[in-house]
Sequence to fold (396 residues):
Amino acid sequence: MLVSPGLERLIQALNRFPGIGRKTARRLAWHLVSQDSSFALELADTIKSTVESFTTCKFCNMLAESDPCPFCASEDRSDELLCVVENTADIQIIEDMNDYRGRYFVLGNLLSPIDGLGPEQINSAFLLQRIESLDPDEVVLALKPSPEGEATIHFLSELLKNNGVKVTRLSTGIPFGGDLEYSSMLTLSNAWKRRYPV
Amino acid sequence: MLVSPGLERLIQALNRFPGIGRKTARRLAWHLVSQDSSFALELADTIKSTVESFTTCKFCNMLAESDPCPFCASEDRSDELLCVVENTADIQIIEDMNDYRGRYFVLGNLLSPIDGLGPEQINSAFLLQRIESLDPDEVVLALKPSPEGEATIHFLSELLKNNGVKVTRLSTGIPFGGDLEYSSMLTLSNAWKRRYPV
Fold:
């Protein structure tokens, strides 16, 4: 017997998060109904109010609570560097590095023709426009070295070839603390090719 | 720079789920604001409506959408067996076994004096009352063999000693598919003591 048919809708809703399987969704749903209901009602309100307070920055495409976003609005950030990321969450990772003082641009997606993600879905025309108005010295493509990331890096570097701007990407190789033994052949042969004098 | 101070409240709310760490909470929060907002608003509504539709069964203490719950209300379930579980989610696990046709009782907690969880917090007086009115032949304590579970089993078996009802617990031992090598010493020595003729 299904103990609680009414919980099914909530389980399915939670199951739609990437990385949350059915078992975890079930555990979270039971937790929500087991606790003092103020926990769940507060969470529901926080989800609603947070989502409603977010908007997209008209300059860099990042999700922010203001438009323009704090990075585009700030006078303390340098126009010389433009860092291109896949999504807004990546910006926090780069900010945590505490080393970068330039501007950002959010693609929103990576190229993946098989999933119907072409140049339009990565906002490449919008990026070109932003580069023209900002006129940076260097565009850093801070994208992950996956097939989709590589395709996007290739596409954007071709697109910007005649633009005069310097286009760079993050270094690839064996991660610190990583083991040669546990590195993939792709990582290892790339690290071999990109070896540098000590 | 903190990319989004407004997301912090949502991250903290999600972080309050057991088993959801800060990193996962951050990922879920970004997912909520990144998607078409209907996803998040629907989730918020589903949480709210589900939690508000749940109540506690006055007979067995289970979380259900009706009071009495479907198990206590059903005429198809036998009164001869009463299965005692820690929480409502455990009932689904036992129902999935598709073998049990008796009644249930939900303790809500396990005994843990160090956490302030005593006889009252496990509803032991309520359980006694339920046993008196239901008059089952056997009470199955389907609790986990953890220190808290063992303490609860010990306490309840003492409590029911003079009640005339047969009190049983689930078998303990090496799980099917488990390895002797990877079993804890406690599990192994318990399995040794409880060995049975083949």
Q: What stands out?
A: The mean pLDDT of chain B is 91. Chain B touches chain A through 54 residues (CB under 8 Å). The beta strands of chain B are 55-56, 63-64, 81-85, 103-106, 138-141, 166-169. The helical segments of chain B are 8-15, 22-34, 37-53, 70-73, 88-96, 124-134, 147-159, 185-193.
